[in-house]
Specification:
2 copies of one chain form a homodimer. The first copy, chain A, is of the alpha+beta class. Chain A has 2 domains: about 80 residues, Winged helix-like DNA-binding domain superfamily/Winged helix DNA-binding domain (Arc Repressor Mutant, subunit A, Orthogonal Bundle); about 50 residues, Dna Ligase, domain 1, CATH 3.30.1490.190. In chain A, about 40% of the residues lie in helices and about 20% in strands. Chain A has 6 helices and 6 strands, in the order ααααββββαββα. In chain A, the strands form 2 sheets. A 3-stranded mixed sheet of chain A has the order 4-3-6. A two-stranded antiparallel sheet of chain A has the order 1-2. In chain A, a hairpin with a 5-residue loop joins β3 and β4. In chain A, α2 packs across α3, α2 packs across α4 and α3 packs across α4. The longest helix of chain A is centred in the N-terminal third of the chain and has 13 residues. Chain A is flat and about 45 Å long. Chain A starts with 6 loop residues before the first helix and ends in a 13-residue tail after the last helix. Chains A and B meet through β1, α5, β5 and β6 of A and β1, α5, β5 and β6 of B. The first copy, chain A, binds a DNA duplex through α4.
DNA sequence: GTAGGTGCAAAGATTTTGCAGTGCT
DNA sequence: AGCACTGCAAAATCTTTGCACCTAC
């Protein structure tokens, strides 16, 4: 039973990394949360193992990203959000009103992506694509996105 | 000649803000640079007026954004990039290889945006839309985007 | 047993804020 | 002349790094 590693563990092994409970918790957090910032992931992990440190979360995410288990996207502000890789590729929709994150299947953007490829030779990293805007609910509530004032486009 | 304000000045006046050389420089920097981070904007401004402080740049950008002269988008990492508002609305293309920023007219994404509107009731803030990927040059050079390794999609 | 991994604390980087002096209106 | 704006410096965030101890293999 020496090498009875779970599939996610395999990925670590394959890259010469060790399997540790901290890394497992971090990966589970990402999987469970769907989308999470380092802070949110830490909170989740600490609910199982209070001693885990923020820097460990950062380092674990770095490793998990390198071995291809998770990715991150930059949504609003400066908050990087991590999510699992192996589920269906999707585009992130960030609501400027409620900060909520929605996802849509990548195919919806296919035409656009093809156009970029054709016209610019630009190869899109679909999973990192971020779309800012206002969700249905916030539009109905008449929110304008940013608190300040006029926000053209 | 009391109120001989330039068009950009008008916008400030209209919102009760004063016209100052610092704000003018910051706005010129944004216009001239096309895309710029606060740091880059500071550098540009200081080339004209060395005494200007970083915090002044931040405050000026905040004001200029409020009156609708500039906007910002979050491109790679945590670097907010500011650009002029009144030119044609465009989508940002960020190359993961060379960090360069390209723009494409918003119409290219129209189909996608319409689909989001139709299916999700999501109103897209086109100017803030960010697309990560690899530009033609970096693809040719065989870059993979992130230095680390595998990067799916 | 050994090298990689973790926790802790300090260092960095980036953005924000308080305050007194300055300059736009 | 009044009050918003600026410069400076300190505070607040968020992320990274150095080091001694611990643990997976």
């Amino acid at each position: 039973m020496a090498t009875a590693a779970a599939p996610w563990g395999e990925a670590l092994r394959a890259h010469g990394y060790r399997i540790t409970p901290q890394r497992q918790f971090v990966f589970e957090a990402v999987t469970d949360l769907g989308h999470g910032t380092p802070e949110e992931i830490l909170a989740w992990v600490q609910s199982r193992s209070p001693g885990v440190n923020l820097s460990t979360v950062y380092r674990a995410l770095e490793v998990l990203e390198e071995v291809g288990l998770v990715t991150h996207a930059h949504l609003g502000h400066g908050a990087p959000t991590y999510h699992e890789v192996d589920d269906e590729v999707h585009v992130h929709l960030v609501c400027a009103g409620c900060q909520e994150i929605d996802s849509v299947p990548a195919q919806m953007a296919q035409g656009f992506i093809d156009a970029l490829e054709r016209d610019r030779g630009f190869s899109t990293d679909i999973g990192h694509m971020t779309v800012q805007g206002l969700c249905r609910r916030c539009r109905a509530a008449g929110k304008s996105g940013r608190p300040r004032g006029v926000d053209r486009t």
